[in-house]
Amino acid sequence: MTTQGAAQQPDARPPAFLEPEHFDDVIQILRRRGYRTIGPTRRDGAIVYDEIESAQDLPVGWTDEQSPGRYRVRPRGDHALFAYASAAHAWKRFLHPPNLQLWRAQRTNGHVELVADSAPPPRYAFVGVRACDLEAIRRLDQVMMDGPYVDHVYRALRRDAFLVAVNCCDPSGTCFCVSMGTGPRVTGLADLVLTEMVGAGRHFLTLAAGTASGQEVLDELGRRAATDEECRLADASVEAAAQNMGRSLAVDGLREALANSPEHPRWEHVSKRCLTCGSCTLSCPTCFCSTVEDVTALRGDATERRRLWDTCFSVEFSYLHGGSVRLSPRSRYRQWLTHKFSTWHDQFGVGGCVGCGRCITWCPVGIDVTEEASVIRQAVPLPGSTGPMTE
Amino acid sequence: MAKTRKPTLAVWKFASCDGCQLSLLDCEDELLEVAAAVDIVNFVEASRAVAKGPYDISLVEGSITTPHDAERIHRVRRSSKLLVTIGACATAGGIQALRNFGNVKEYTSIVYASPQYIETLSKSTPISDHVFVDFELRGCPINKYQLLEVLGALVHGRRPVTPSYGVCVECKRRGHVCVAVAGGTPCLGPVTNAGCGALCPGFTRGCYGCFGPKPMPNTSALANYWSAGGMKRLDVVRAFRGFNASAEAFRRESELHDT
Lengths: 391, 259
Ligand code: SF4
Ligand code: SF4
Ligand code: SF4
Ligand code: SF4
Known about the structure:
heterodimer; A: about 25% strand; disordered C terminus; B: alpha/beta; Rossmann fold; 2 domains; 5 strands; about 10% strand; binds iron/sulfur cluster
């Protein structure tokens, strides 16, 4: 599938009913169709996204506990497949690889030849894309391929990706998708949309097609339609999740407040706590920044250019002629928060945060964007503070 | 590349464990390339044949711990066009800089049968405290790919590409699960310079700070967060007193908690 609204569902058929022990059928159909299936799996005490070969690789019966600076997995005592919130990884790891060779060059007899990687990009099927993450992919689409500057690597990977989205029923302590209007119900376009109902003695999945290719998979699966009762139960689980957000953020006026508060004392306050480690931006599903590095052979006859994830928290990130523009930790934290909740709007007509909570959970010292942003928002914008940001 | 003569390379050892120079031998596959790019004329770890200086490039391993070495390093400097220090010992004083926080006389009296024969300085100091250093390559031990990168850069007259950010960046690029957040393990990654490829977090261990402080590290924020979480003062001190105990930012932080 391509971007939002490109391929539409032919007709609104009722979702299919699927017993959880048969979810593997979906994975196998996708694999037979040549997709590399990527989904949630448990590793090193967390749920991450990695290649899954069967439903057994899913974190069956596991959930997560998330709070600022803390993540733990724990068994649920049931066989739920998708009963946890956003994983340690974001899907950008696959669509916008963290370490990628762009090209290499070879010099033979004084003649330099550029060699591009000719291997076809993998066709990914992402299984278990939560509502916030589906929206994050859409926002990345805007940055990476829908605007005037197209990232060809991203587009090639994205164009062929098959998305199995999940209506989120198990938000964590750091989620605030309701505040950001991105979840817990899937509203964006996905090939398949899955809901897992678990509890009250029942455990089943419903699967709705969002695109023609999603419908093909459903047809091959050949399951009966879910009954109205089943749809209602599944729906109620998602409804309950919306009431169960770990955090909230008032966003009205936030964009302006951030733009007007470059000298707010809170920046100094947070910079005392912030490690400028960049874990927040690197965990964030929409942060897209990268840098390039050349790796040159000792002989000097071969070189390769690699693209690596970067972060606005590093000193070098803002290095221009003569030095770094954002040297103080204060200015680096301000760049991140302001970009996510304010200047992203200026650039892309929408905010850069989908409320997944990753930056809060995976901050090694538990700094919470909802708290920092709220403090700035509550401040009365100082008149005359709209000038250029200074150190 | 229009050079007619290959640059000469010398390797020097001061107070150290040899691990960093071994990284050069460890290059194995790349060793032929190294030999093709430079003339290794002085490397006692590899060959007894030692040529006289001056040398184009000197790799210096180890810290200065004796009066004799404090003089010898000046001779090395005088005979080297470019002097590159390699490893935590040469760049920060190494693990032996733990003596800087104690009393060497006491140590020698405990360790040696005849301490009167031991002639040693009260502090272990990095090479840059004694002579001008052209480039510092950090790590305990150094990363062999970084060593190759630095050699390549020097041979071809360009700036070496080495990171100036923290270990967390490499850790996240590699897709490791953060041991601090998911395991409650103290990790120095947020304040330590990258270069190892986030080796320890990849094996669910916290970072030990082998590559020393990153630029402008907020060590206090990390230490205060640990303390608030119940970490004992002595453990905070010990976390910062590893292979780079005497690196300015780590030393200062450990001293704040050593009361
Ligand atoms: S800013 Fe934080 S909560 Fe928002 S999308 Fe990024 S990681 Fe998720
Ligand atoms: S917040 Fe920082 S890392 Fe993220 S997209 Fe903006 S500038 Fe890039
Ligand atoms: S806010 Fe947290 S995760 Fe982000 S740079 Fe600061 S310490 Fe690191
Ligand atoms: S494990 Fe250590 S290096 Fe890796 S992200 Fe966490 S704090 Fe940073």
